[in-house]
Design a protein that fits this description.
Chains A, B: Keywords: Carbohydrate metabolism, Isomerase, NAD. Chains A, B: In the C-terminal section; belongs to the aldose epimerase family. Chains A, B: It comes from Saccharomyces uvarum (Yeast). Chains A, B: Its cofactor is NAD(+). The structure is a homodimer. Chain A is of the alpha+beta class and about 700 residues long. In chain A, helix 2 (about 20-35) packs parallel to helix 3. In chain A, about 55% of the residues are buried. Mean pLDDT of chain A is about 95; it is low at about 1-10. Chains A and B meet through helix 5, helix 6 and helix 7 of A and helix 5, helix 6 and helix 7 of B.
């Protein structure tokens, strides 16, 4: 995707119901790539919000999410009121054929009422375009007719299970509604054949609850060891290898079919609107054995299987005739079963348990259960856990052996208080001061809002600490390790700085090592250059349960060299020594109730030439160590950065008071953007990548 | 119907949804005649509670009614909690084909969700038997097949309008639900052909809102002058007279089909339950012209008609093959189109505007909107109006030229107060005192509970004033005249008196004459004989808006002869004169603030032999006249009765105080049941009819 798309103005907004689910989530990716805005509604009854959080990272796009059941008219109407919805793609619905035969009432109630409420609100809010997620199941056994394989849209319908009956009933509803007022409606009914695969990124895929009903997810679970073996239901069909033939379609192809349908509706300008069905299938049938072999090849595993008897209701061949979609929607499948297997395997191996990870919890940080205001805890229930907010990608809490060692607020209100002291937050675009808020880049003068004496501090009014980061993608790549990745898209009207910036904040929590690594990456997606100096502003109190202050904390740092500043706290150009214990001192500096007071920018190595940092190569330097004799907790701060601000929290406010926490903020030089000798290290040019790492390690 | 059925114990309770509607109400009659109890649920969106009130009179049976929309799960669940429901007959649903093409969403939402909620509650409350009101509409145009006229149940379905689609979807739901748990369900799907006609009583019938969609109601409206002429859509079909052929079925036959189906389910004892469809039709087709001629004959009117073009969707012939119902349900139609036309004509002429009458209003007398606790006003908005409660068939209010002239309570709470003074109520079984509560009938001694000194008064603990009367049937038989008929079934455990009694109270309000006639009729449905002495206990205050007392009221009566009583207020056998002005006096008795005090039983004619009264022959006698000089309102009390109690309200309580109203209560002799000379007139024997009339006339 391109930067242009991320800043599309006047983009049409598509309401995607069931957008957290398998096909819905893949369609959201394609919608955003095609310049649409998406609003996702999902009751999460069979899906996870994590898929939406991952979509945000995947698309670099904010995706408003509402946990609403479509049967809840009031809840759904709020969504119609809040967003100017241009069209609807309706995925939401219960979809397991087998389950539908067990609890048919729930299927009818949920699927039909949900659709009716949705259509009623569309009518009320004058939204006319609707793409409906139907299914080839509506045809039932098309082999009952002599000439209906491959199946054309004209094939008489005859679903054979409650799930199919709900899809059939909804198709009838759409036809009847269209006929009641043809000028007002454009309905596209998409009849899916067998969607398989996953997004090639490996970030989203099918995450079925319980025993998978479908071949591919079942094979994937056998392959990752969650199931013993594959059952093949009958090898005595009249096919090339005796197994039944189905029309498998890569979910990304399927998702693109929705874009084609939506664009068709967008472009359709007849007076009468339309209500029309399109098959979405490849037109090519594959046998079960063929798919089995493709998956074994993709995974490199010879899956154990057993052929058992035919399954009731199964028939030889259900392949789509996709000609109408090709002709009218200009859409056809591009990917093969082999692609599907490869992408599924990537998804399955990178997410063996889907979205739901043990050791990860989330809670809402606002009363209105806003999903953008979540606090996600990684390492939950372990000896070391971190809680991170979308707001500011802020470290809300760190717990060492169950004991909180940082300052933080219970909910977003605390962080949004204008007097709050950037507690735990990501600081950007420019940590620390820029003199008078002025700088020159590429021969052009820039003026930031002055927000700190006569200077601009911590990015001024565009400070990252009150910006909402996208995501996170939370993963558990190996035992004891959790990652959470956030992205901030800091563009145009959101900033006084030049250039469109994307910042990734990747938290890596290692429970065994009790370390939290923060990796920042920045790059410009538009513009020539920007100042950039990122840090994290966590305040530590290593004795928090016992004392409300840092009193008694012992610290040592790597160097006592520090940037000299004038009365406006702007560097004079000199480097001076501060009175602080370094690692080679036998005794640490002990922070007392009032003294010593630090708010200095220390320099790791005054001889090193400051420059942009490649975090993949750069070594981490231990810059500070703190210890409290009561709690016996030691904190080590390591980083890739040339400086580190030490601040004893003497001006804490907004619920906190002086010296309740201290901060060690690795970063780049104060006002470096205005200093020739330091300017390079805080200037991010187009094509470059800004990188830095900070590690908080406890013992 | 027989008396036995009315007292059926352990009768199975059938929940009838849509029971206030056309087919539902006729089915309730048949259900009760077949010994079932009914609970009616209806949202009254296209029907009137009056049909249920009429059903109560028609069946002499209480019919619990709940105004609940089936989509309101909470409301419907209350019904399941309150009643032990054995089976459900489900009529509720929107049913106009034409309308369904205009507002299909409403049809789907209402019909399908309503059914789902109902089935969910049946599942929850383990109710397994369900008779569904489907329609031949599900077949669509059966003439599209070569051999499907008459239409058998095996005919493939294919509804052609949203209404039919909702019926089809519900049939699918029933099939799927049955297949999900065969042991738990017995479903009968009844596919109606063309129901016509009305109950032969003329009390219930089809009452369509707006322009009728169907031939018969349309003809009826033409016949009574509400529509100009009949339109016949096409006379160029290939039928005997060129008009299309349909299978018309008398609604009473159709209703009986439901009983047959329900009994079939009741008797069905296979392990697996069932879900089965039955056509309900006659198997005989009639053309439009044939029906037209039958109706013209029945009504004696040559209806004007015009043949116009064919109507879209109409086909030549849709006649049922009813063999399956005949074979399995042992049901077939018994009535002919001619019967339907005759009964429809009776209904139409006796109720030219259906149930809804101008000048009739109703309100709830309890906070829970209990339909049994309604206050019905007849003559509403006219110069003379009466409000009557089901409780006690009580006169709650009488207004003369907008001015209330009687005492009464705002709601039922007042009337149920044990200290209330029978205000406005029907008094029975025995108005006035029975000495010591004892009497002997047929050689047997009876003891009533003593509730008044050492006597039983006003029927004692079984007093009619706190019994709920069935009905009413409200009618407007001619200009300015409104009638309201109530029935009390006073049986077995409800009474200490011998015999099962039915009492009818018929109010006839004549606005022009400003008279309210009350006619009582009593008869025994079981037992040999009972004491019976009925009256109405209205308290008048002719100057109510100005004064809270009867002070200044001038009265005259027909006779000063009065029953002498002992210290226990029981007749001594003597007749004495009281000090009261009679009609031949020049001056009236003036009721003062404290005097004179009356609570005497006056005798109209001491020489007349008291006996049972035939109200159709008996002359009314003017027994009392009252006038207030401030209001200038005159009251005349007339009756068929041998005595009249005059009571100056000196013991009024429960919200009222002494002398706020006076009563003139025509009736029979005090303690007559224990006096040989009077006993006949208060002894109702089996086969006899007790009759009496009271008229309150104002000027």
């Amino acid at each position: 995707m391109t930067a242009q798309l991320q800043t599309t103005n006047n983009a049409k907004t598509v309401l995607v119901t069931g957008g957290a689910g398998y096909i819905g989530s893949h369609t959201v990716v394609e919608l955003i790539e095609n310049g649409y805005e998406c609003v996702v509604v999902d009751n999460l009854s069979n899906s996870s919000y994590d898929s939406v959080a991952r979509l945000e990272i995947l698309t670099k796009h904010h995706i408003p999410f509402h946990k609403v059941d479509l049967c809840d008219r009031e809840g759904l109407e709020k969504v119609f009121k809040e967003h100017e919805i241009d069209s609807v793609i309706h995925f939401a619905g219960l979809k397991a054929v087998g389950e539908s035969t067990q609890i048919p009432l729930r299927y009818y109630h949920n699927n039909i009422l949900g659709t009716l409420v949705l259509l009623e609100l569309m009518q009320q809010y004058k939204v006319s375009k609707f793409v409906f997620s139907s299914s080839a199941t509506v045809y039932g056994d098309a082999t009952r007719f002599p000439d209906m394989i491959p199946i054309p849209e004209e094939c008489p319908l005859g679903p054979t299970n409650p799930y199919g009956n709900t899809k059939y009933a909804i198709e009838k509803i759409l036809n009847d509604l269209y006929n009641s007022d043809k000028a007002s409606w454009k309905f596209s009914i998409l009849r899916y054949f067998n969607p398989i695969g996953a997004h090639p990124s490996g970030l989203i895929g099918e995450d079925p609850l319980g025993i998978p009903n479908n071949l591919l997810p079942y094979m994937a679970q056998v392959a990752v060891g969650r199931r013993e073996k594959l059952y093949i239901f009958g090898d005595d069909y009249d096919s090339r290898d005796g197994t039944p033939i189905r029309d498998y379609i890569h979910v990304v192809d399927l998702a693109k079919g929705h874009i084609a349908a939506l664009k068709y509706l967008d472009a359709y300008n007849q007076e009468e609107g339309l209500c029309r069905e399109w098959n979405l299938g490849s037109g090519k049938g594959s046998t079960v054995f063929e798919v089995y072999r493709a998956f074994c090849k993709a995974s490199g595993i010879d899956l154990p299987y057993e052929v058992t008897g035919r399954r009731a209701g199964d028939v030889l061949n259900l392949t789509a005739k996709p000609d109408r979609a090709k002709r009218e929607l200009k859409w056809q499948t591009e990917l093969q079963v082999e692609d599907s297997c490869k992408d599924l395997w990537k998804w399955a191996t990178e997410n063996p348990f889907g979205y739901q990870l043990k050791g990860v919890e989330a809670r809402f940080a606002t009363e209105d259960m806003n999903y953008d205001a979540r606090f996600v805890t990684i390492g939950a229930g372990t000896r070391f856990q971190a809680t991170i907010a979308n707001l500011g990608a802020t470290i809300v809490d760190l717990k060492v052996d169950g004991q909180s060692v940082v300052l933080g607020y219970e909910n977003e209100e605390g962080y949004l208080n204008p007097d709050s002291a950037y507690i735990g937050a990501t600081i950007g675009r420019y940590a620390n001061r820029i003199a008078k808020g002025k700088f020159n880049l590429g021969g052009k003068d820039y003026q930031l809002t002055v927000n700190n004496g006569i200077n601009a501090n911590h990015g001024s009014i565009g400070s990252f600490h009150v910006k909402r980061f996208l995501g996170p993608i939370v993963q558990n790549p190996s035992k004891d390790v959790f990652t959470a990745e956030y992205i901030l898209v800091d563009n145009g009207k959101d900033t006084e700085f030049p250039g469109d910036l994307q910042v990734t904040v990747q938290y890596t929590l290692n429970v065994a090592k009790k370390s939290l690594e923060i990796e920042y990456k920045g790059k410009l997606t538009a513009g020539e250059a920007t100042p950039l100096n990122l840090t994290n502003h966590t305040y530590f109190n290593l004795n928090k349960p016992h004392e409300d202050t840092i009193d008694g904390t012992e610290i040592k740092v790597v160097s006592k060299k520090s940037v000299d500043v004038d009365k406006n706290v702007i560097p004079t150009g000199k480097i001076v020594d501060r009175n602080i214990a370094t690692f080679d001192c036998s005794k640490p500096t002990i922070l007392g109730p009032k003294d010593p007071r630090y708010d200095y920018c220390f320099v790791v190595d005054e001889n090193a030439k400051p420059k942009q940092i490649d975090t993949s190569n750069n070594e981490l330097t231990l810059v500070a160590k703190a210890f409290h004799p009561d709690s016996k907790i030691t904190l080590e701060v390591l980083s890739t950065e040339p400086t580190y601000q030490v601040y004893t929290g003497d001006f804490l406010s907004a619920g906190y008071t002086a010296r309740q926490g201290f901060a060690v903020e690795p970063g780049r030089y104060v006002d470096a953007i205005n200093r020739k000798e330091w300017k390079d290290c805080v200037t991010l040019k187009h094509g470059e990548t800004y990188g830095s790492k900070i590690v908080y390690r406890f013992s």
